[in-house]
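Try it yourself: sequence plus glutamic acid, in.
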Amino acid sequence: MTVRTRFAPSPTGLLHIGGVRTALFSWAHARKNGGKFVLRIEDTDLERSTPESVKAILDGMHWVGIDYDEGPFYQMQRMDRYREAVKQLLASGHAYPCYMSKEELDAMRAEQEALGLKAKYDRRWRPEEGKVLPEPPAGVQPVLRFRTPLDGVVAWDDLVKGRIEIGNIELDDLIIARPDGTPTYNFCVVVDDWDMGITQVIRGDDHVNNTPRQIHIFNALGAAVPQFAHLPMIHNDQGQKLSKRRDAVSVVDYDSAGYLPEALLNYLARLGWGHGDDECFTMAQFVEWFDLKDVSASPSRFDKEKLLWLNAQHIKAADAARLAGLAKRFLDEKGLDLSHGPALVDVVALLKERVQTIVELATGAEYFYQPLTPSAEIVAKHLSSDDLARLSTFASEAAALEVWDTASISAFIKEFCKSQGVKMGQVGMPLRAKVCGTTHTPSVDAVLALLGKAEVLKRLA
Ligand code: GLU
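Structure, out:
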């Protein structure tokens, strides 16, 4: 049987880190097994779903690079199909109309609570052999309820959590259609997973409670029950569930903070899954190694430092031309004119070994296009009158240099230090401070070579 998995976000906010991790594991399971990965937008909550959120999900998936083979399917476009499936259950006796009004429901609940019982539908409209049902009230549209078995258990072997068993007595007769005929959440999910031929439902473990109800609906529809894998939640560094308000959790935030999508995915892959001691890997390796049985059943902790470290590793491994394209956006935002100065790709090649984010890369590139103003601290430390006098001598001697590349500049600086009777740092740091405006640069000979002789001499003057 072909493996088919899906990611089924509700478009009620931005695409967040937890959602991406779910999508990633679901995608990896399909890719690993030569299967198909489906994207489904669960937009039936009309009050909370927005087109902006749909766009954020699609853009976010595109940015991280999780591709899908089918979809996006929209539940709101499948209403006729759900209505048809509701009819099927009504015809087979798995569903029945319930005419209880809101007032009656409230009164029943209040009574149960007063007795210290869990509030639960008392099945008063559930047809049973020999039971006489009340006369349906005139002009009332009923809800449709699912006829949950009264005894026995519903069980599944969760691919992450192991065997889970729930007594049917714990489950209510779930409402599957509202008075206006619109199907409810758990019902739509089952019809979709059935129609889309989903073989493994991989989702957050906040859905564990829905699974027994959904299994009953699968069985009632005569559909094959898929396997389930419930992924544990991600916690922040205080051990709290990651929240949209407290933590930076939207994928676009990582884009604007200068993270590479492959670093974020690498990091998310390690949240609750591992392959020996491997920390830094590509998505191709992840797919090759991925197995749901290696997913941990306990929550994992989001560690910003580790994500930053991984980002640095992926930046080192990335192609300089691509990184230059990514850094350009941040330099453009600062209004820098990149046509005056070295090719950005060369600057990036020099800097990429030493930065953790693309934002840092762009910041590090700034002084190649415009000298920075050194801080008072740098001036005090590296640009004393002695330093300036020495730089002036340096400039006039450097002007005579015929070859201007890293090797010849390096040799020249060494010679110069010797003739001045000073250490390398006593020339290197003032040179950086004067030419770049910062002392935080790669090796000074390489920086001067890239800036070009004319520009260096101009800045020294
Ligand atoms: N739409 C649900 C959510 O966003 C997921 C449902 C499912 O995966 O079954 O949490």
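One thing you can check immediately is this: Residues 121 and 172 are 6 Å apart (CA to CA).
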